[in-house]
Amino acid sequence: MAEEKIRVLHVASSLGLGGTEKVMQSFVTNLDTEKFHAAVFSPLNGPRAKLLRQNGIETFIGIDLLPLLEKFKPDIVHLHRAGWPESGSLRPFKLASIPVIVETNVFGHYDPSPDGKIIDRHLFVSRFCAQRFEKINSIPALPPKYSVLYNPVDTDFFAANSPVDRYFPPHTFGRISRADPGKWSTLALGILPSLHQMIKNNDIAPFTYNIIGGIPEAKRFVKEHDFEKYVNFLHPILTDKELSDFFNSISFLAHANDTGESFGLVIAEAMAAGLPVITHPSKELRDNAQLELVDHGKTGLIANDIQEYAEAVKFLLTHPQEAREMGENGRAKASELFRAQDIAAELGNIYIELLESKGFQK
Questions:
Q1: Which H helix or E strand runs over 333?
Q2: Confidence at 1, pLDDT banded by 50, 70, 90
Q3: I need a surface site. Which of 110, 136, 230, 354 has the fewest CB within 10 A?
Q4: Residue 359: which region, alpha, beta or left (left: phi > 0; alpha: psi -120 to 50)?
Q5: Which CATH superfamily is domain 6-151+339-357 in?
Q6: Where residue 2 falls among pLDDT bands split at 50, 70, 90?
Q7: Phi first, then psi: what are they for 262, rounded to 5°?
């Protein structure tokens, strides 16, 4: 008789379009099905539920959590959350006596609550988050309680759908985010007056700037300054195929987010598609993992202010060969560090290690 599989329940606050939910989806669909039976719980429905079920993943939505835990009987619960205390949210897992609880700590926060002690492993999504956690809390971010596990990216898919020899549309770049003001920076549009002046001075040719996730303030700025001839606001997308099509419509990614990135999933995906990325540092102790992903002059460019950012855009628009080389360097880095199957295998090893440390056997 075959050995029973290890039962894993991933828990997220919603099944929407955000990066946290996408990472969870990637984990459950790439875990070794010979070893693990993975399912998902969320109190809130969303478009990602359909994608999970299309991949054969059991998905429980909006039901009482404790009865579900008693019925599904997970050996491991994997939480996807910000890391800070959430009153009462961990109590069902404590009552259900879950053998192992793992947390993907999306923003690298600290939960000092008594309930927080039931978490066996906190996974930081970047070295930056782990180092900031250590600095703020004076707690070594080391095993067995802490470790770094990068977010998974389907680099194989992007390599196949955005091949090395693909056509790069000239004079075209883009940005993508949720339509959330918290995902924006003044840099995202503040570069347009400088770029417009460069066109007038014949320093660059007229360009196209494709944007997914435009907010009302951005659309108003573009209209009021008569930049509509340069900027296209596009509809939201959901699947990696749609994302790959978007990446294939631009020649580099312009990332700008004042709150920064605890990982930077869209940056990693653009790298996997062979695109160079322009980004910028965040101030003080804000999320800054975008600088962990983008190596200045190798996989993209890092700009400190609007003028530097505009110059970076100009450089990539006018140096397509160098842009391609940076993009391929980024593709190689993404494949080495973020490949979904490798990250999921590493996660599976962490699960087994934690179960074995507790003497748990199926």
A1: helix 320-338
A2: very low
A3: 136
A4: left
A5: Glycogen Phosphorylase B; (3.40.50.2000)
A6: very low
A7: -75, -25
